[in-house]
Amino acid sequence: MKKILFSGLLLLMALRLFAQSTYSDTQVNLSSETDLQSYQLSEDQQAYEAVILKDKRIIEHYFEGQQLTSLKTIHKLIQINSDAGIEKYNKIYVPMSVGRSLRHLKVRAISPDGKITNIQRENIKELNNVEGFQNVKIFAIEGLEVGGKAEYLYTVKSPFEPFGRETVQAGVPILKSTIELVHPKQWKFKYKSYNGLADAQFRLIAQNQKVIGLTQKDIPAFEEEEYSLEDATYMRFEHKMASNGGYEQNIFSWLNLMKRMTENCSSPKTAKVAKKYVKDILSQNLSDEEKIIVLEEKIKSTIRLEKGGTQALSDPKSIVENGVGNVRGLSILYMYCFEALGLKAHLVYGCNRYDGEMDPTFATVTSIGDMFFYFPKYQKYLLPEHYHMRYGVVHTGLMNTNAIFVSYFIESGKVNYRTFDFKKLEALSADLNQIGVRASIDFEENLALPKVILEDYAQGYRAFSYRAVLKNADVDFREKFMKDVMLSAFENFEVLSTDVEGEDMSLSTDPANFLKLKMKYTTPELVERAGNEYLIAVGKVIGRQSELYQEKERQHEIVMSTIQKYRHEITINIPEGYQLEGLEEIKNKNVITVNGREVAYFISDYQLEGSSLLITVDEVYKDISFPKENYDEFRGVINSAANFNKLTLIMSKKEEKVN
């Protein structure tokens, strides 16, 4: 979605065409010798593989003749503290999409004793068509040493880019970061800082250009943590053009963006393509909701999704003919098919919560990552890009996020915007996202090699993923997949039989539907004989569990991939004349409480009735996120499952009663 072309942009602006010299060209000097020697690192900073001493960025918009042009300058000075730092910073990657060129380039390595090695332009390599979108220039910084510094500066020239996002934090500390936004003084730009980054302020007028800037010192290293939003929590700076000094004062408002983006989906020739494509669907006696389901299955079963921006991948006619298309092209095909089938849908734009957020107060295409559909009559969604899912709910990255719902209509082959509204995308209930195993362990034939009958069941998102994997799996891959899922805690085993229930992809239209993997197996790793006793590693039956460790203080809020409910039931059929010891080790309870409300818990317990022991495990997460202040409790719940995984019971002969 970030590749959206705003056709007609220049026509919307009453541009004042005059030549301008560039501010950026005056800011391309590398650090002076005095500057290089002025930095002192603390012990904590020296412990990192590197420290970014200076991070300066200039985004400039100007006229080159009568052509609107953008420049982006990146200048970094980096202290290298270890071999890992050399490995991390000895190569620089510069994205070079269509229309971009390298205007300035200065690269050097500075040894601990001050010796300078300049890198020549001839050492630059280029990779073409990376991920189907752009070229990338790569230059190596040779001569880096521990205790030395790396410094590079480059300026990329490109066609005018009215939007931008600068992510400031890194995996190492930054002593000083500066961002300058430069544009003709009669223009207006809007900008906003996120996640604790300093606000930008007007700085000066230089060469008939307005300079907006911000400076932030002592930016801490970004700590990657499990169960966090990661990229979305980096400090960042968003900016966009608001006015060129003419009559329109808010060019890129959400209203203008939605209108333009929706109407850019117009493809009058596709109306004929769509009518032909859905002819077989119309010939069936289907309800409207059945039409949606059949259409989605037809497209996802016959058309392959591929990244890239070529005309063939974006044109619905070519997509149908060639059986391959990109997200935008497929979305347009869906829109015209809905029209041909008489279906009313809303176009929805969303942002994966792991990438960022859609801010109702700051409109920008940089926050739009998903394009999908909503059917108001049924209150369900269809996601063209996510082939493992079917009509029903949004994917986990969209849960609990803001999205824009656009009402549109097609008339005379043209897509017309009607209205838009921000709405919150709800999370799938834990009651529709149940996961677990049911197992029975039988010792009748061999005390050292019991037979296990296992059922691994799942609803919701896990069922969606498993069905998609099984849909096109051959016999060998299917067998491997089931072993990986159900026998992850064992290395040595014999599978006696397998079966799958509920694997048809059509069942994914209702998250309540279960998928069940069934298996009978034996493994010598489940029971270990110790003299006259048998040690039963019963916890391994639920599969390998992750453990959560973190020595440093928690930095980010705790975020779950989804709301879910685990329920495991293990039955041990105790052979006649034997008993089980260590049952009290089964019992465990850990709870997370926020504002007096129980939001997550782990409870394991047992019931012994005659020769049958039933072990139950309930691990439930009612919310999608928790405050970082509850991290210790959260870790206790997560690690309870890992501790259960290590549970071992002792089976021994009953003592004979003496009369």
Please outline what is shown here.
With about 650 residues, the protein is α+β, with helices and mostly antiparallel strands. The N and C termini lie far apart (about 85 Å). Keywords: Signal.
Please give a structural write-up.
The chain has three domains: 9-249, Sandwich (Immunoglobulin-like); 256-425, C8orf32 fold (Roll); 430-653, Jelly Rolls (Sandwich). The longest helix has 15 residues, at 288-302. The chain is 18% helix and 39% strand. The N and C termini lie far apart (83 Å). Helix 6 packs across helix 11. It has 659 residues and is an alpha+beta fold. The radius of gyration is 30 Å and the shape is globular. Strands 5-4-8-2-1-10-13-12 form an eight-stranded mixed beta sheet, covered by helices on one side.
